[in-house]
C-alpha cells in the first residue's frame, strides 16, 4: 500500500548533499594534506576519494605520490588525524550561506506545519556542521552514528531516524542524494525522496533534480 501525503508526520534527513555539501570541505582537507606531503593534486585524485574511507583515501594519496612505503601504520594514522583536523577547521568556517538552495525555506515550512524532523547522517561531525549552519534547533533528534552497527545501504540509520521521532516508518519520508541511502530508506519501510540524477536514484519513490525543487507542495503532488 502506497503511503498518502496526509499520512506523513516526519522527515528523516541525510546531511551531505541534502542540507549542505561537505564533500567540498573533505576535498579541501585532503588537498591540504597532499600539499604538505608534496603529492601533486589533480581532479582524478579528488574524484577518486569520493565516498571511500579515510584510511583508503590516505593510501590513494600516498600511492599517487609513490610514497605508499614511506610511512608505517602509526604514522599513517597520524596523517589521517591531521586530515580530520584540517576538515574540522574547514567546518568551523561554515555559515548559513553553506545551506543548499531552497533547503532553509523547506525546513522552515516543515517546522511551521508541525512535521517532526530527525537527522540520519553517518558523519560524526554532523552536530558541529548543523551548529555552524545555525540549524541545530531544527533537529533536536539526531541519530548517533556511534550507536550504529551497519552503514547504508543497511536500513538501520533510517529505522532509528523514525524511532527517535516515535513514528512508524510508513509515516516518514527519508531524504537522500545517494543510491545507497535510497536503498536504506526503502528497506526501512519509509517513503524515499531522492535528490539528484533520476537514473541513478531510480529506486526512490520520488526524485527531485535539485534541492531547490524540494517543497511540501511538490511532494504532495507526487504522493497524492
TrEMBL record:
Marked site positions, Important for catalytic activity and assists the phosphoryl transfer reaction to Asp8 by balancing charge and orienting the reacting groups: 121, 152
Pfam families linked: Hydrolase (PF00702)
UniProt cross-references to NCBIfam families, sorted A to Z: bPGM, HAD-SF-IA-v3, PGMB-YQAB-SF
Protein's UniProt name: HAD family sugar phosphatase
Record-listed Mg(2+) binding positions: 14, 16, 176-177
GO biological process, one term: carbohydrate metabolic process
Cofactor(s) the protein needs: Mg(2+)
Gene Ontology MF annotations: beta-phosphoglucomutase activity; magnesium ion binding; sugar-phosphatase activity
Swiss-Prot/TrEMBL keywords: Magnesium, Metal-binding
Co-factor binding details: Binds 2 magnesium ions per subunit.
Family of the protein in this entry: Belongs to the HAD-like hydrolase superfamily. CbbY/CbbZ/Gph/YieH family.
Active site per database record: 14, 16
Residues that bind substrate: 14-16, 30, 49-54, 57, 83, 121-125, 152
PANTHER family found in the cross-reference section: FRUCTOSE-1-PHOSPHATE PHOSPHATASE, GLYCEROL-1-PHOSPHATE PHOSPHOHYDROLASE 1-RELATED
Gene3D superfamilies, alphabetized: HAD superfamily/HAD-like, Putative phosphatase, domain 2
Amino acid at each position: 500500500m502506497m503511503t498518502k501525503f496526509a499520512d506523513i508526520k516526519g522527515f528523516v534527513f541525510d546531511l551531505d548533499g541534502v542540507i549542505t555539501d561537505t564533500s567540498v570541505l573533505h576535498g579541501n582537507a585532503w588537498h591540504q594534506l597532499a600539499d604538505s606531503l608534496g603529492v601533486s593534486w589533480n581532479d582524478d585524485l579528488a574524484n577518486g576519494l569520493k565516498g571511500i574511507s579515510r584510511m583508503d583515501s590516505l593510501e590513494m594519496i600516498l600511492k599517487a605520490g609513490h610514497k605508499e612505503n614511506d610511512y608505517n601504520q602509526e604514522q599513517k594514522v597520524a596523517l589521517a588525524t591531521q586530515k580530520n583536523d584540517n576538515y574540522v577547521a574547514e567546518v568551523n568556517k561554515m555559515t548559513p550561506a553553506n545551506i543548499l538552495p531552497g533547503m532553509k525555506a523547506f525546513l522552515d515550512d516543515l517546522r511551521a506545519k508541525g512535521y517532526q524532523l530527525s537527522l540520519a547522517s553517518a558523519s560524526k561531525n554532523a552536530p558541529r556542521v548543523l551548529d555552524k549552519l545555525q540549524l541545530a534547533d531544527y533537529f533536536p533528534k539526531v541519530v548517533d552514528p556511534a550507536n550504529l552497527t551497519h552503514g547504508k545501504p543497511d536500513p538501520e540509520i533510517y529505522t532509528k531516524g523514525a524511532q527517535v521521532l516515535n513514528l512508524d516508518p510508513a509515516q516518514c519520508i527519508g531524504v537522500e542524494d545517494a543510491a545507497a541511502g535510497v536503498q536504506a530508506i526503502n528497506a526501512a519501510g519509509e517513503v524515499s525522496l531522492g535528490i539528484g540524477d533520476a537514473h541513478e536514484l531510480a529506486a526512490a519513490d520520488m526524485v527531485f533534480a535539485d534541492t531547490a525543487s524540494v517543497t511540501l507542495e511538490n511532494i504532495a503532488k507526487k504522493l497524492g
